[in-house]
Design goal:
The protein is an alpha/beta fold and about 140 residues long. The chain is about 30% helix and about 15% strand.
Amino acid sequence: MAFNVGGGGGVQSNINMTPMIDILLVLLIIFMAISPVHPKGLEALAPQPPPPNSPPPPENDTTVVISIDKQHNVKINQEASSWDGLEERLVAIFKLRNQRVVFIKGDPDLDYSYIAQAIDIAHGANIDKVGLMTPKVEAGQ
């Protein structure tokens, strides 16, 4: 922070840093505003077990569960289905429903690729939320 107090008599070429710092701060704010904040990932829900010593929930027919067993057989709410007709069946089930939630229950020894395929088919049928049921959650632990 030095300055000249005398008459030096010549032209001086000093850089004015204030406009450069203003531009730098504006660019910093712009890049902070356009940077993504939310991480992307597989959207899945895990059902929560009921509190201990609570009465069982009432049976409702709005819950749709896709079950896959060891032999890769598919069932929708204990009703047998096929992999080829799964998407059409889900579209027919959710045609008149407002909430589009389905749970997928797989055998513990099942390869995860079949679960991922069922999730993909459910998303293809325009289902908003896909939940995963595990044996511990089903047992209420």
